[in-house]
Amino acid sequence: MSELLSQLSRFLNIALFISTGFLIALWLSAVVWVFRDIRSRSRDVIAILLSVLLALVFPLLGVIIYMLVRPRETLNEQYERALEEEALLQEIEENAVCPACSEPVNDDFLLCPNCATRLRNRCPHCDRLTKLEWNVCPYCGS
């Protein structure tokens, strides 16, 4: 009977040792994950330190809190979104539209073909098209 209890005690000690090792490995991997995740989302050193400390001090709860308050986008996603916005703005600037009816017009149109709004002026001296807001022709200086 005592031999059975000693074997059971030895088995429980081994199981406790393995469980403790597993929980420590899980805790450390969660801290490493938080560190890598916050570095991909922010370059702020204080935010990185606070996030890692949160995960270190409060093993499971800290990771849950971090996941609730972490930045929504990674730095790479922010950069890609900014590039997309810049491309859209550049595309809008390249495609001229009529200020009155918003229909697409070419840069060399004098009038809008849709609503007949004046888009450009013609220089009386050099006969080139100029913008409406220009007071002087940049081509001939008149």
Write a brief structural summary:
This protein has four helices and two strands; from the N terminus they run ααααββ. It has helices spanning 2-41, 45-57, 59-69, 75-94, and strands at residues 120-122, 129-131. Strands 1-2 form a two-stranded antiparallel ribbon.
How would you state the average pLDDT, rounded? 91
How would you spell out the order of helices and strands?
HHHHEE
Counting helices, strands and paired strands, the structural category is mainly alpha
Model regions low in confidence, pLDDT < 50 over at least 5 residues: none
Describe this structure in words.
The chain has 2 domains: 2-76; 97-142, no CATH class. Helix 1 runs antiparallel to helix 2, helix 1 (2-41) packs parallel to helix 3 (59-69) and helix 2 runs antiparallel to helix 3 (59-69). It has a two-stranded antiparallel sheet with strand order 1-2. The chain is mainly alpha-helical. Strand 1 (120-122) and strand 2 form a beta hairpin. Helix content is 59%, strand content 4%. The chain has 4 helices and 2 strands; from the N terminus they run ααααββ.
